[in-house]
Amino acid sequence: TLPRPAEAMRQDVILTGRSGVLWTSRGLDPRLVSLAATLTLWFEQFPDRHRQVVSLLERLGGRGELRVDIREDASNRRADVGPQHQASISFDGVDFGRMSNAVVRRLELVVALVDPSSTTVFIEDPEAIAVPGMIGRLLETIDACAGQPQVVIATKTPHVVNWAAPEE
């Protein structure tokens, strides 16, 4: 994972572009923009993937709503490229850009597990992204999704080490 700005320096993530084509944002953490753009495109074009992300988040103990809002950008009308749009994402009412590192890492993990183009998912210290007391749920979720990308985990936590089968 890439370092994020201090909590006081974080800002809302507003993506701009053409709905269903390209989503981007300037001046923001590229990691967040990429993740937000993926979630927005999946919401628009691959609702099954979006539903799978929501389901896995619930399975991991996330009780909030993952919400994607897309609206026409009336301030940026250009006849040569068609209508422009703005998109924002929130989880449990918190804007995507202001979410905690643990929540962003959980979202990254879930997207990587759902993404059909992922071949290998590397997870460092999975216990750091689990909801407190829910490392077992996290491991069950990883196990249920394992196989279609290969999962490589780096950890020192005995519970996680004992979960992995030696032959794997």
Task: Label this structure with key terms.
168 residues, single chain, two-stranded parallel ribbon, 5 helices, alpha+beta, five-stranded antiparallel sheet, 36% helix
What does it look like?
The protein is of the alpha+beta class and 168 residues long. It is built from five helices and seven strands; from the N terminus they run E-E-H-H-E-E-E-H-E-H-E-H. It has helices at residues 30-45, 47-59, 101-114, 135-145, 158-163, and strands at 14-18, 22-24, 66-72, 85-91, 94-95, 120-124, 150-154. The radius of gyration is 17 Å and the shape is globular.
Number of beta strands? 7
User: What Rg, in angstroms, do the CA atoms define?
Assistant: 17 Å
The whole-number mean of residue pLDDT values reads: 80
Give the low-confidence spans: none
Q: Per DSSP, what share of the residues sits in E-state strands of 2 or more residues?
A: 15-25%
Helical region count? 5
What series of H and E elements makes up the topology?
EEHHEEEHEHEH
Helix/strand-derived class?
alpha+beta
Tell me the major beta sheet: 5 strands, antiparallel
Q: Strands, helices and their partners?
A:
Elements: E1 14-18, E2 22-24, H1 30-45, H2 47-59, E3 66-72, E4 85-91, E5 94-95, H3 101-114, E6 120-124, H4 135-145, E7 150-154, H5 158-163
Parallel strand pairs: 6-7
Antiparallel strand pairs: 1-2, 1-4, 3-4, 4-5
